[in-house]
Amino acid sequence: MHEPISALPMGVFIDGLTGAVNPASGHYVKRLSELREIYQDKAAFDHAVRERDDPVTYEVVEYRPENSDIYFGTTTMYPGDIGGEFHMTRGHFHARRDMGEVYYTQSGTGILLLESRNGETRTVEMKPGVCAFIPPDWAHRSINTGTEPLVFVWVCNPLAGHDYGEILKRGMRKRVMKIEGGVKMIDNIAYV
Ligand code: M6P
Ligand code: ZN
């Protein structure tokens, strides 16, 4: 369905409310059931998969020209929480430790949670107008803390790659929770 895209000048239309990218070279959706490892409350997770009919929690559309050092796309994260823990991406380091990324929020609100190799935590607020710089070798996970879809444009080197192993194995140090109607960052008790 998607054609290969050559590295020629191009204006790509991005809908900042829906995350649609046109033309696009690829697209995937992440349903809740694929993300069991990342949430703390497994009972709430299993319940949500069953009762909410395994919703799509986020989707990614990309524009990846062949033979280019740049590609970009959108991530659209739907609002919600699992036992109080807001919808989030898996989170990853880049396979290439010398390559960072940019996230430019188009709509919605969230938190970009970053963690360095030695366990330092930083956050960047995600809201329209904020362009987040993700330095090389910082793990990054985006979290929708609002009630609307969180849509952001990302730009990266296609060679950067995704290294999910670390984060899936030991989690990140912090979890972002809905507590008493507010947004709170707490220690991840399962962190090893
Ligand atoms: C951003 C980018 C993508 C990433 C996506 C989902 O859009 O960083 O490269 O794949 O978020 O995040 P994850 O792969 O960690 O689930
Ligand atoms: Zn990345």
Please provide a written account of the structure.
A six-stranded antiparallel β-sheet has the order 3-4-5-13-8-11, with no helix packed on it. Helices cover 8% and strands 41% of the residues. It is mainly beta. Bound molecules: 6-O-phosphono-alpha-D-mannopyranose and zinc ion (ZN).
The amount of beta strand, in percent, is 35-45%
**Domain module tally:** 1
Report the CATH architecture: Sandwich
What is the CATH homology-level superfamily? Answer: Jelly Rolls
Question: What's the overall geometry?
Answer: globular
Average residue pLDDT: 97
Which sequence of SSEs, written as H and E, runs from N to C? EEEHEEEEEEEEEEHEE
CATH class: Mainly Beta
Q: How many individual helices?
A: 2
Low-confidence stretches: none
Structural class: mainly beta
Cα-atom Rg, whole angstroms? 16 Å
Percent range of helical residues: under 10%
Largest sheet geometry = 6 strands, antiparallel
Bound molecules: 6-O-phosphono-alpha-D-mannopyranose, zinc ion
CATH topology: Jelly Rolls
Straight-line distance between termini: 42 Å
Number of strands: 15
Q: Strands of the largest sheet, in order across it?
A: 3-4-5-13-8-11
Can you summarize this structure?
The chain has 192 residues and is mainly β.
How are the SSEs ordered, and which strands pair?
Blueprint (H helix, E strand, L loop, with lengths): L12 E2 L6 E2 L3 E6 L10 H10 L4 E8 L7 E7 L3 E2 L2 E2 L14 E7 L2 E7 L4 E6 L4 E4 L3 E7 L5 E7 L8 H6 L3 E6 L2 E6 L5
Antiparallel strand pairs: 1-2, 3-4, 4-5, 5-13, 6-7, 8-11, 8-13, 9-10, 9-12, 14-15
The structure holds 6-O-phosphono-alpha-D-mannopyranose (M6P) and zinc ion.
